[in-house]
């Protein structure tokens, strides 16, 4: 079986650019989800936002159009990100405290299960998260983590633009592209990955807020190290877009998307 790739390799030119539009207001449910499988070394859980509408991604070398269904986060130890970074990719050996994934399924699929029946069913946009300045755009989501510490809890979140959670428009021209797999069970392999070079910034106190989450109930262990370590590339090619500025089509990424979220803690 092929394995998830590590991005620490020589850069190559990428013919084509990613194009994605978030056009519509939509509702979303947000929570942390747990996965257990014989194919992974340990259970994985993540903070996930399940989208009720379907923003699209297409072009830029993608073989077809895809629609967004959810985004989620992986991290190491929130209070000590400098000691145990939690990103699932690395660039030239550098890892980050956290990684954000926006998951898309092919446009003609009704759900993730149906999309996985095809060899090119999913596309994921990945953003590193680093410890730096406070990011006020994350305040709404982070303030609700206390309400979903344990499995089965949920809370409503006010609408917010998804674009505000991502790097600025001018920083979206540099990214990596490769064919790989999901990093959580069932480790489905038909995934086109786009990993952006510019990270999202959160302060250390903001990253530490994820430390309130647990894998299960009150007596369960804290939700830490919910990432899959980088795997060998096994000969697959990683392409690099070195555009100095975002292409006009990339501006679609930053169109306002209002999310009314229900924050919840669910097992999966």
From TrEMBL:
Pfam families named in the record: Carb_anhydrase
Enzyme Commission number(s) of this protein: 4.2.1.1
Subcellular location: Cell membrane
Gene Ontology CC terms, in alphabetical order: plasma membrane; side of membrane
Location, primary (coarse class): membrane
One Gene Ontology molecular-function label: carbonate dehydratase activity
Alpha-carbonic anhydrase domain ranges (all copies): 1-242
InterPro entries for the chain: CA_dom (IPR001148), CA_dom_sf (IPR036398), Carbonic_anhydrase_a-class (IPR023561), Carbonic_anhydrase_a-class_CS (IPR018338)
UniProt keyword annotation of Metal-binding present: yes
Reactions catalysed, as given in the entry: hydrogencarbonate + H(+) = CO2 + H2O
Membrane topology: Lipid-anchor; GPI-anchor
Keyword vocabulary terms for this entry: Cell membrane, Glycoprotein, GPI-anchor, Lipoprotein, Lyase, Membrane, Metal-binding, Zinc
Cofactor field: Zn(2+)
Family membership noted in the UniProt record: Belongs to the alpha-carbonic anhydrase family.
Subunit structure comment from the entry: Interacts with SLC4A4.
Record's function text: Reversible hydration of carbon dioxide.
Protein name (Swiss-Prot/TrEMBL): Carbonic anhydrase
Record organism: Hirundo rustica rustica
